Amino acid sequence: MNFAATISNQNDDSWVASACALCYGTCSIVAHRVDGTIVKIEGNPESTIGKGKLCGKGVSGLMSHYDPHRLTRPMRRTNPRKGLDVDPGWKEISWEEALDEISTVLKRVRADDPRKLVVQRTTTVTASRVPFGTFATGFGTPNTSTAGGGLHCGNGAHLISGMMHASWSIVPDFERCNYAIYFGASKGHSAGHASTSNIGLAADARARGMKMVVVDPMCNFASAKATEWVPLRVGTDAALALAMCNVMVNELEIYDAEYLKAKTNGPYLIGPDKRYVRDAESGEPLVWDSAEGRARRYTSVPSANMSLEGQYTVAGVACEPAFQLLREHLRKFSVEMAESATTVPAARIRRLAEEFAREAQIGSTIVIEGVTVPFRPVAAIAFRGSQGHMNSVYNFLAVDLLNQLVGAADVAGGCLGFNPACNGYPETGRLKYRPKPGPDGLMVTGMWMGYHYPYPLGEPRLPTNLGLQDLLVIGMTSPFLASTDQEAMWEKFDIPYRPEVLINFGANLLMSMGTRETVAKSLESYKFIVSFDLFLTETSNFADIVLPDCDYLQSLDSRSSFPFIFGHPAGMGEWCWGIRQPVTDPRGEQRRFADVLLEIAERVGFAPDMNAAINGFLGLQPPYRLQPDQVYTWEEICDRELKNNFGAEHGLEWFKEHGVIKWKKTPDEVYWRATTDARVPVYWEFLVDLYEKIRAIAEPRGLSIPREYYEPLVDFLPCHSHYCDREGFDFYAFYYRDTVHTNSYTMENPWLDEAARLDPYSYSIVVNRREGERRGLVHGEPIRVETETGRSVEGRVCLSEAIHPEGLGIAALAGHWGDGMPVAKGKGVFFNELLELDWAHVSPVNLNLDLCVKVKVTRVGAVS
Amino acid sequence: MVTRDTSTTQPARERERRGDIDLPPWRLLPGTDVRVWLFGSLSSLASERPLTLPVPDSARVEQVLVELGRLLGPQFTERVFASPDKKMCTCRIFLDGLPVELDDSLHSSHVTRDLELILLTAVEGG
Fold first, then answer.
1. What is the four-CA torsion angle of A44, A45, A49, A53, rounded to 10 degrees?
2. Contact, A260 vs A323, CB < 8 A?
3. Is the CB of A458 inside 8 Å of chain B's CB atoms?
């Protein structure tokens, strides 16, 4: 199919190939434009990204695009007072006035201390990553953030997926998996990474007969289509997964010893100090060579000869293989203990473990396109739900341990990272990457979204970043840009500056991080805020200047499906690189954010630095590299990236016409694990040193670091909510991502709003029917949900069998209160109002916010 | 695409001639110059861009960075190095436009080369 490559407003009847941005799935689309007006959006059948299908959000995009409440003029606040429910007194200004004022402020800040600038963006629009990342880099500030994205959903899932699978997320190998178990994940049944692609793949897998077990407090999008729903107490996923591991290893004695020897650090000898026993000369970890009966460097022993079990003495030091320690450690997770923690009956846990272990078919292989690869048709995956807790790291890792024990990691039928290895575009060899061994032989990802690699870990240091990630080095997105204790934390570590200017792109952080009062207080402390927005959100009402942005149907992005570890479907098939291109012109004075950023950089005087950052981010090489002394448009930069990767004949004009470029995947790319000489840690030895280093910096300054979160063996650690035994507080409140909405953004879309209003769950508070009726609750009546600290929300109760008896589910992120999105205003329940946003409520390892809270439910009125 | 004026001032070699800075230990070895471009948060550490440094033919990237640390002080070293022999993963180095690591050689061969350094942002979200 050939597509239109230019915008025409007259006598035009064209289909334009582009990419969706209603969520970060970035599915390929074609937009039907008639006389300059978009009349329909469909999936692009030429593309691998969605394969011609599009979800309900995607097809509704034109309703957001043509929303009469879109911003069309730059505006400046006239009311210097900022606060919740304060009228900013917006006044329309020209772009020249706006950019002049912004540039003047930024010049001053950059000369003073560039770290005083915070750059924040929504993760929904993936196209913002490079422009805003390079803007911040060029300006010279390390203080960037993605608001709730990461803090709520990714600090655990993404980092551990990177550590264990060299990718941003994990999915079953839908084409060949026979048994998938989901823990708080909805891959293939909702929004997110490779959403529509996965929906098709998951549906085909279920039709083929893949058994799907979903462990989740709520029976919603994935559970409803599953073979089996396993309701559990909120936040106890690790207890269940570790009990399953215990059954497999210690009761059934089913595990893939060859895989554990060759592909994990299971054979590495561990001394009494919990650290590797190392070769005195080389420093390499030692393993026990069963053939020679002595300890040797891991690099000098064939994996088949490495002992996984036993007790040894090496140079006078008593030691055991890491797997031996893990095996013994797992014994404490009996099915009875897990039943007590999770409420899942012991017999059921044992049965699930047995099914998973036996379905793994350990030792089997399969021939794919002439290549023999290991075959393990089982997968355990996790995502936001299970990792959104204090125990974020271990909850996710415990689930992945199921895969590692049976060797079902990145092999046929198993648990796959999203495209960790790529041999590159055949005609140029560009885009080539592959996991490789790093320090101690552990895997270093071949591709990552930024330069915060999962492994090797950064060296903790006295922090200078506002988010303290330079101390708490596993954390990505930090709570401290908005937390109640931010000033106390900054004082503890003598942070020598305070944030003064915020540049925000589309993030409604007032809704996406914590309670509105908490985040509002942090916003009030900025001297100057600029916000690029489509609508006046609750957050843009704190801005000094609001810039009217173009939406995805008016914008250009040269890499809508890249990096492939983020949103490109995993498994066999084709590689596919697509672009996003404007389907219509900007309305009023809307401008594309990337061009605006380039202009600001030029005005402030750091355009050469931004050019250099773009070179680094995009991997541009001569002759397509940007020169410091040249001024480029975003369109020119996109053209250079495409030519850099695909050759001079495949520039922007080619992509505008053809939409996507594709080439075939090979088994060696998809099932890379067997042929890649890198190990993954089933024993997180590096946490021992990490703890000591962080503690040495933090504790003298009054910040206690709890050791139990830094133990090398995966554990189940309860959340605050599990310790709450106050009378009347007997529900665990949690939120889930509604399949008809993307965070708070799509609530303004009238089609999606209508769908959500028809859905009994979207805008309500879901309580177990039996438990609700026992308390006298009536379906549909207003209730108040209150935390121990007195935070509360109100909404209509939905009594349902589809939720755990102790659960209370709220779809995120509803409850808008601003006037700038009138369709969204007053709809649904604002869950984050229940959350505490401070150090005490984040994982002390990865800074992920604890998203469950114990609540009391009371009636506030009768059914109207 | 338009051209911007980015003329440089006071090259390091000139300052070296005036005795403002000490000779690096390798200065007397046969070699040539490398132009060092510091971008982003590193740019404020030097009063000029590019810095021009004399290097021996056999120089490695790490030696240039150590020399830059000597010239620009601990602020440079702290930002670029995670430990004495390991650079920050956020620090990206390009030699004539191609990515290089600490161990890579400059292979100057009497041709002036361009070495770019930049600290990219690290944080990503969901």
1. 80
2. yes
3. yes
> Is residue A231 a contact partner of residue A224, using CB atoms and an 8 Å limit?
no
Measure Cα distances from A399 to A193, A206, A423, A673, A825 in Å. Answer: 19, 21, 29, 19, 38
- Secondary structure (DSSP) of A121-182: E-SS-GGGHHHHHHHHHHHT---EE-THHHHTTTTTHHHHHHHHHSSS-EEE-TTT-SEEEE
Residue B25, token pair as written in the block: 């230990």
| Cα separation, A838 vs A845, whole angstroms | 14
Backbone φ/ψ region at A424: left (φ over 0), alpha (ψ -120 to 50), beta: left
- Could you tell me the sign of the dihedral formed by the alpha carbons of A502, A508, A513, A519, in that order? positive
- Which residue in this structure is represented by tokens 């990206």? B92
User: What residue type is B55 in one-letter code?
Assistant: V
Orientation of helix A335-342 relative to helix A346-359, angle to 10°: 120
pLDDT tens across A453-474, in order?
999 999 999 999 999 999 999 9
pLDDT digits (tens, 9 = 90+) for A748-798: 999 999 999 999 999 999 999 999 999 999 999 999 999 999 999 999 999
Please give the distance of CA A731 from its chain centroid, rounded to a whole number.
Answer: 27
Interface subset of A 615-644, CB within 8 angstroms of B: 615-617, 619-622, 625, 628-633, 636
CB contact under 8 A, A150 and B3: no
For residue A221, give the 3-state DSSP assignment: coil
φ, ψ for residue A385, nearest 5 deg: -55, -50
| Residues in Cβ contact with A434 at an 8 Å cutoff, skipping those fewer than 6 apart | A420, A421, A422, A446, A672, A676
DSSP letter at A234? T
Query: Which token pair is A77?
Result: 């606040």
Is some CB atom of chain A closer than 8 A to the CB atom of B98?
yes
Cβ–Cβ gap A629/B3 under 8 Å:
yes
What interface predicted TM-score (ipTM) does this complex get?
0.92
End-to-end Cα, chain B, rounded Å: 34
CA distance to A42, A106, A602, A612, B122, per residue, from B116 (Å):
44, 24, 20, 8, 18
Query: 3-class SS at A38?
Result: strand
Average pLDDT along chain A: 96
Per-residue model confidence (pLDDT) at position A812: 83
Q: Which residues contact A93 (CB under 8 A, 6 or more apart)?
A: A73, A74, A75, A76, A545
CB contact under 8 A, B4 and A458: no
- Angle (nearest 5°) at CA A769 between A764 and A772: 80
Q: For residue range A471-485, what is the model confidence (pLDDT) as tens digits?
A: 999 998 999 999 999
Kindly report the pTM of this predicted structure.
Answer: 0.95
Question: Which residues are bridge partners to A38 per DSSP?
Answer: A33
Concatenate the DSSP letters of all residues of A454-486 into one string. Answer: SSSPPPP-S--STT-TTTSTT--S-GGGT-TTH
Confirm if A605 and A626 have CB atoms less than 8 A apart: no
Q: How far apart are CA A609 and CA A602, in angstroms?
A: 10
Burial class of residue B66 (count of CB atoms within 10 Å of its CB; 0-12, 13-18, 19+): middle
Euclidean distance between CA atoms A350 and A337, whole angstroms: 12
